[in-house]
Amino acid sequence: MTINGHQVADSEELRKYVEEYNSDSRTFTLEEEESILDTYNWVKAVFDELDIQLKNSR
Q: In the beta sheet, which residues pair with residue 53?
């Protein structure tokens, strides 16, 4: 999984990256094409836990 071109291996690494770059003016969009459901679920869970709205590209 990548975020802004940065490869992340798991939810902890994603959480650290998002916490570092999150701001009130930043928007995150989930772009997925036939992703693995487990990956989609842990990505969504990280954003839910951080109380950050995640837009879906579809």
A: none
Closest CA to 46 of 6, 34, 9, 4: 9
Q: Which residues pair with 6 in a beta bridge?
A: 3
58 vs 50: CA distance, rounded Å: 22
1-19: b (≥16 Cβ within 10 Å) or e = beeeeeebeebeebbeebe
pLDDT tens figures, 7-31: 898 999 999 999 998 988 888 888 8
- How far is it, in rounded angstroms, from Cα 51 to Cα 24? 12
